[in-house]
């Protein structure tokens, strides 16, 4: 593979990744661990282990990225999290 082709492929991958957004979940003093875990499993399609790890990170760090993807894919998921009373935003 030529060096030019390798560089172009790296640029193409970087451009694809730059179009991604993230749902960030924020800590609150209202919702229980179990409720947040269940919400992440239901809405973000996390495994139990992923949901538990994200919930612990949110609790101790104050926030955690819970889903990455294109905006149009994330918007309904973020709205569903918000409708459950969780604090989240798309960045």
Automatic annotation (TrEMBL):
Top-rank taxon: Bacteria
Keywords, sorted A to Z: Hydrolase, Protease
Pfam families: ClpS
Gene3D superfamilies: 3.30.1390.10
Adaptor protein ClpS core domain ranges (all copies): 18-83
TM ranges: none
One example GO MF annotation: peptidase activity
InterPro entries: ClpS_core, Ribosomal_bL12_C/ClpS-like
GO biological process: protein catabolic process; proteolysis
First and last residue of the signal peptide: none
Name under which the protein is recorded: ATP-dependent Clp protease adaptor protein ClpS
Organism for this UniProt entry: Lutibacter oricola
Origin organism lineage: Bacteria, Pseudomonadati, Bacteroidota, Flavobacteriia, Flavobacteriales
